TrEMBL record:
One of its GO terms (molecular function) is ATP binding. Coiled coil: none annotated. Belongs to the IPP transferase family. This is tRNA dimethylallyltransferase. NCBIfam families: miaA. InterPro entries: Dimethylallyltransferase (IPR039657), IPT (IPR018022), P-loop_NTPase (IPR027417). Keywords: ATP-binding, Magnesium, Nucleotide-binding, Transferase, tRNA processing. Its cofactor is Mg(2+). The keyword Iron does not apply. Its EC number is 2.5.1.75. It catalyses: adenosine(37) in tRNA + dimethylallyl diphosphate = N(6)-dimethylallyladenosine(37) in tRNA + diphosphate. It comes from Lasius niger.
Length: 332
């Protein structure tokens, strides 16, 4: 009888470029892809949608011609993307890259997507549209405080992690409860769907928050100049439910109020920028509390990256040189 072959094969290498919005992730990911035969794979929830390329800062057509991009603009705005949808797509991309001898570079700021890629996710059954709509109607009727109280009675473990303003997460927990007749905490305690069995290396953007404030303001002004308002106007003409993820993309609710005559365009822009700053703060908090790997497995950039660096910004060429030197030492 032949002895079992216990030869170990090297695990697939993969990169993660993550951090808050407007910190320069995409620029670095593209440069690395050009240098190491890589492809850029989206790990940003809003950039999965076909609609609102400008407002969601999706890579341009020119960028997509420079290097291969995947999982960008693949969902319609009427669909509901989720980490449960995204992870199987990401796993398919890992298989594709392994077959084609390409380096997968996951780029984005949606912490739950990246955490699922590294660690896997709970295997929760699909929730019906009826259960989801019932949870949203309950929220609109009762509000956050009452909904959280209701959740606390039936799923105290999940409720303890939430605040009354966490609309999306509370409605998700309630819809799981209604749709499966079991609390979210039950499903999360069961065996998980596996993430990527990879040798992950990372580049984590963790700039001081004040560094991003002016960048976010300049970015939104550029978005408006590039046609973001007209893009949102066309999207709103579809008359989609306000509960859909893309209808809550930063800038959409504010520009909708402008469309309806409630506020001026200047006020809408100010509110949108404020919402983006709050979101960047939440992203930064997430990544500071959810490590992307061991300290020796990556680089943390404390400053945003820019093609044309201003004060407190890092030149793209310098950042690329640091990153490529790091990867060369690790066999990329």
């Amino acid at each position: 009888m032949m002895a079992e072959d216990k030869t170990s094969f090297p695990r697939q290498k993969a990169l993660i470029v993550a951090g808050p919005t407007c910190s320069g992730k995409s620029a670095l990911a593209m440069r690395l892809a050009e240098e190491i035969n890589g492809v850029v794979i989206n790990a940003d929830a809003m950039q999965c949608y076909k609609d609102l390329r400008i407002l969601t800062a999706r890579p341009s057509e020119e960028d997509e011609k420079r290097v291969p991009h995947f999982l960008y603009g693949v969902l319609d705005g009427a669909e509901r993307g989720s980490v449960g949808w995204w992870l199987p797509q990401a796993m398919k991309m890992l298989s594709y890259c392994a077959q084609e001898n390409l380096v997968p570079i996951f780029c984005g700021g949606t912490g739950m997507y990246i955490n699922a890629l590294i660690h896997g996710i709970a295997d929760i059954p699909p929730v019906s549209d009826q259960a989801r709509e019932a949870a949203e109607i309950l929220w609109e009727k009762e509000g956050g405080e009452k909904c959280l109280e209701n959740l606390k009675e039936q799923d105290p473990q999940t409720a303890a992690k939430l605040k009354p303003q966490d609309q999306q997460r509370i409605c998700r927990a309630l819809s799981v409860l209604m749709g499966t007749e079991k609390p979210l905490s039950y499903w999360q305690s069961r065996p998980q769907k596996a993430g990527g069995n990879c040798d992950f290396h990372f580049f984590h953007f963790a700039p001081e928050r004040e560094f991003l404030r002016s960048r976010l303001e300049r970015r939104f002004e550029k978005m408006l100049a590039a046609g973001a308002w007209e893009e949102v106007e066309r999207f709103l003409e579809r008359g989609l439910s306000s509960s859909l993820p893309l209808m809550r993309a930063h800038g959409v609710p504010e520009l909708k109020r402008y469309q309806e005559g409630e506020i001026s365009l200047e006020e809408a822009a100010s509110l949108a920028i404020s919402a983006m700053r709050s979101y960047a703060k939440r992203q930064d908090t997430w990544f500071r509390h959810h490590a992307l790997g061991r300290e020796e497995d990556g680089i943390v950039f404390k400053n945003p990256i820019s093609f044309d660096p201003q004060e407190d910004e890092i030149d793209l060429e310098k950042a690329s040189s640091l990153a490529l030197g790091f990867l060369k030492e690790r066999g990329f």
